[in-house]
Design a protein that fits this description.
- By secondary structure, this protein is an alpha+beta fold.
- It is 35% helix and 24% strand.
- It is built from ten helices and 16 strands.
- The strands form four sheets. Strands 6-7-14-10-9 form a five-stranded mixed β-barrel, surrounded by four helices. Strands 3-4-5 form a three-stranded mixed beta sheet.
- Helix 1 runs antiparallel to helix 2, helix 2 packs across helix 5 and helix 6 packs across helix 10.
- It starts with a helix and ends with a helix.
Length: 354
Amino acid sequence: MDEASSCVWHLLFRHSVPFRFLDRAFADHYSCTLAVAGDYIDRCISGWLNSNIVEVDHPSEKQEPSTTHSSRPSVSSRPSSPPRGEHGSEDSNSIFFSVCAHTVALNVGNEAQRLAALELLGHLVTESSAADFELPPFSDATDARADALSAFVCWIKTAVMEDVLAINPGWMALHAGALSTPHGCVLLAGKSGSGKTTLGAILNSRGFASLADDVVFVDEAKTTVTGLPFAYCAKNASWPILARHGLISKNRNFRIRPDGREVIYIAPLSVALSGDVRLIVFPDFKCGSAASSSEVDKDAALIALLSDARNHERRLTTRGFLTLCRILENARTIRISYDDADRAADLIHGLLLS
């Protein structure tokens, strides 16, 4: 195996990452689009099946239909994994939380998983126990090892996104952060490592309400957006500046994601449900670069947003395309180059007010 295929193998069989998180984990690790990641993973699995390295799992008829990639079989390394408990077993503990006006039920296998989940979504917990949908069981339902817990937290984010898209077939997910203000919403779009999370956390500390940490939903029937306002997943390079803002403490525990990156989850100080987009920012972190802004061509901005977009059918609809075009027409599209996140946040604030 080469390095990339070894990464797929470890995510699947060492970290037991479910399929619905696999594309995102691989895309984040190699800074590629979800489409490229999905195609490569499909080819890996096909090759392993043909070589008899893995075998196809045959779920029981009682299991709920999957919302994962329809052409990708569920596989296990040889020998097969032992049977897993049924979804929603009586001995499981549930956390109920609210996103996008939906109440979601999450089953946790032990206290370590509960605490890990609450790092991500504790600020979204609701007293309601009437769930609109329940997440399927995580593959390592009782594993309390640090690497399994990190995979569990990452899985939650993708599992929620997949299920929200499944019950809202007219929605499209964009890889972007979003914040709401009385003057309109700001979208922070761009590749991993561009500074979206750091800028989002700083703006949130200044009174901007979080709409999404990195998944924004567009409803093809209207131009307002919503999202998943999970805790900000701050990588270690951003910790010093976030500590200066009092957002993380010096001795705060960190987690190591399945891609090997050290992260700390920071709960937003305030969240919002939806809003109209006024400003779309493409951050561009460059060492030694003074904070500056420049207009981004609307066509280029559209291509950038669509490059990592997805819906439940995994294909762009005409209505979704036209809705995204209308959002772009009504918003400014700006690229901000910077090496100081505080000054970049100042610039974004000023652009929103201008």
